[in-house]
Specification:
Elements: H1 2-7, E1 21-27, E2 29-42, E3 44-52, E4 57-62, E5 69-70, E6 75-79, H2 82-131, H3 137-162, H4 164-183, E7 186-188, E8 193-198, E9 205-206, E10 211-227, H5 229-232, E11 240-245, E12 248-257, E13 268-273, E14 284-301, E15 306-308, E16 311-318, E17 321-333, E18 336-341, E19 348-350, E20 363-369
Parallel strand pairs: 1-20
Antiparallel strand pairs: 1-19, 2-14, 3-10, 4-6, 4-9, 5-8, 6-7, 8-10, 10-13, 11-12, 11-14, 12-13, 14-18, 15-16, 16-17, 17-18
């Protein structure tokens, strides 16, 4: 028995064909498509500013709290202004001193010019006497020295008078700067709004770069959307957009639209402003953007798409076999995908579960569906 088993011929493996994959088909068709894009955003105040002091100092008074309404030019926070006040008074006094000095130099210049004229006459008189030997050389030399000294004094005073306007401007500029620093020791509201946050307390020492108060203008609200290029291409400023706030439909207005896309996301930022009294800051809203309708375009189910190596395909069915068909996609509308090229009307493609299929595979059709 053992010998019979050992000498029995080996069984040859039998080749069995795999069962055909069962697929559902969809027939391509052309139709008109109304395209709209629904995007979400969060409402924010139309203006927001973090206010900072332009001078340093210690906080003496905190006059506002979060939620408080303020008017333009209202004082929000005060610094100890004594040093800035003294600096302004000193600069003012310097201006007064300079004006007095200018007046003095002008009067002295007139007097010295008169003395110069008299001394010049005296030198000429002594020169005539010297020729007649009626005076000494030392007297003439002394008169000439006095004349030279007066000339130097005239030149110096003339320089002071000529540069008086420039020196006065420098002093007045320093006075204006000191006054501005004194004014900046009080933080003022740039516009009417609501205090949202206060970051400092009385007694704190503030620096120039330190945020002190956050002010918002919530008289109107807006939100930001990031639009794809094909959507932004059809948009422009001052166009109305349908916005859903809670269960209400309102009309928003595009007030800003970025034309050149963000280099990192390749999206275009758009700001939509809502009518006054609509919603509240932080509320989620839904914007519906309508695009130009597409006329007689070919569509397939979204589930029919197959992606490979960065390209898009569908599995086309013909005579019991499927093959990969390269396509170029247009916009997606709900569960349907617009195909710009690669398909014609009436072609049949696999409508779903395409990831497990391969090019040239034999299939069994379950049923044919229209998208």
């Amino acid at each position: 028995m053992f010998i019979l088993i050992k000498t029995a011929p080996e069984k040859q493996p039998e080749m069995k064909s795999l069962p055909k994959a069962r697929v559902e088909l969809s027939e391509t068709q052309t139709k008109d498509m109304k395209i709209s894009e629904t995007l979400m955003g969060r409402l924010a105040p139309v203006r927001r500013a973090q206010l900072k002091f332009e001078v340093t100092g210690q906080v003496s008074e905190r006059l506002v709290e979060p939620g408080q309404q303020v008017l333009a030019s209202d004082v929000l926070i005060k610094l100890d202004s004594r040093d800035y006040n003294n600096a302004a008074m000193d600069a003012k006094a310097q201006v007064g001193v300079e004006k007095t000095a200018i007046k003095r130099d002008r009067e002295l210049l007139l007097l010295v010019k008169e003395n110069l004229s008299l001394q010049a006459s005296e030198v000429k008189r002594l020169q005539r006497l010297k020729k007649k030997s009626l005076t000494s050389q030392s007297s003439l030399d002394s008169a000439r020295q006095q004349l030279s000294s007066l000339k130097r004094e005239v030149a110096s005073l003339k320089y002071n008078v000529d540069s008086a306007a420039a020196r006065l401007e420098i002093k007045e500029s320093a006075w204006e700067q000191a006054n501005r620093k004194l004014e900046r020791s009080q933080l003022l509201s740039p516009w009417e709004g609501t205090v949202n946050q206060v970051f400092i307390q009385a007694g704190d020492y503030v620096s120039i770069s330190q945020a002190a108060v956050e002010l918002i203008d919530d008289s109107a609200l807006e939100f930001v959307l990031s639009l794809r290029g094909e959507i932004a291409h059809y948009m422009q400023r001052d166009v109305a957009v349908a916005v859903k706030v809670d269960d209400k439909q309102v009309s928003g207005n595009i007030v800003a639209l970025q034309r050149d896309p963000d280099p990192s996301t390749f999206t275009h930022e758009a700001r939509i402003r809502l009518p006054a009294g609509t919603g509240y800051p932080g509320q989620m809203v839904e914007a519906t953007i309508s695009l130009p309708a597409l006329q007689q375009v070919i569509v397939v189910p979204v589930t029919a798409l197959h992606y490979d190596a960065g390209k898009q395909f569908v599995m086309r069915y013909e005579n019991g076999k499927i093959s990969k068909q390269a396509i170029i996609l247009g916009p997606r509308v709900g569960n349907e995908q617009v195909v710009l090229s690669g398909l014609e009307q009436g072609m049949r493609v696999v409508s779903r579960d395409v990831a497990s299929l391969s090019d040239g595979q034999l299939v069994e059709v379950i049923e044919t569906k229209k998208p």
